[in-house]
User: What shape does this take?
Amino acid sequence: MAAGLARFLLLLGLAAHGPAPAAAAKMKVVEEPNALNNPFLPQTGRLQPRREPSPLSGPAHLYRLSGQCFSLVESTYKYEFCPFHNVTQHEQTFRWNAYSGILGIWQEWEITNNTFSGMWMSDGDSCRSRSRQSKVELACGKSNRLARVSEPSTCVYALTFETPLVCHPHSLLVYPTLPEVLQRRWDQVEQDLADELITSQGYGKLLRALFEDAGYVKPQRENQPAQEGAPKAARLENLDECRKAHSELAEEIQRLTSLLSQHGIPYSRPTETSHLEQHLAKGLPTHGTLEQLRGDPGLQGNIL
Assistant: This one.
């Protein structure tokens, strides 16, 4: 009887306090939303590249880096470098509109002293009136890592990527990476420069064209396209082209003088052959007229 009385009193106490709240069984913790991985952000907030990256080019031993990405956190930003693909920046905050953007898409190599000196990433997200771009310098290191990031000028970023793949002194030379036909073409350019058939600027221009054919750099864009119908200036890069142009001009002069004589129109004839014509006829340029004969085509931009 005592046991039955105790059970009755226990049930009575539970009824007086009522049933336990359901929430007391399991407490739910609500976390702050992370703007870096927020499924509720609109799709337009995701990174949208303007174009596809350029094809793989340059030293073949660097191709193994393609498909990998390397990151570095500076202050509240995370930078990510994906060789032969792009460079991105992500703001590391919990703000709903944290910035994430593309700082450049793989474009071309920068070549200095006939050596691959950097990778240019262009056509990034808009920045005022232009696009963001980045230059990635390759440096020798014990491991593959993104070592430094800076912004030397507005919307232009400088990155340093360390890798053991460039520690050999010949690892970034351009000449060994070229196919045999372009190597022979380069050899001829070097010979023409040694023979003083082209100027140093003409040499740079010819090498630029060679690098374009190899796919290492992109054709330069003209800042101001020529007006329609405007005459194009002749570019004479060697003595043979200069001699050919002179011959064509001499034929044109002969044709015009014949027309003048045919119609009885008086004209004055030069009394003596010019200094330049004398040396063109001999085919042997002198030191004083060498620059005039071979011309100076120059190198627009002079980035080599």
